[in-house]
Design goal:
two-stranded antiparallel ribbon
Length: 66
Amino acid sequence: MLQEIGLAAGELWHYLESNGPCTIGEMKKALQIKDNDLLMAVGWLAREGKLSFEAEGKALRISLSQ
């Protein structure tokens, strides 16, 4: 399970690097990652301090930390 989450985290990081900030919904549409793996990947990268979060109405915009 950790391997799948790590791979998802890598895909997510590369996606954000190429496309800039986006919401979970936008990530789900763009990436072929299971919902649970995507959410765990966000948590993984957040815990490592690699993500920033900004509330945008009811949505949460996620970007790579500077």
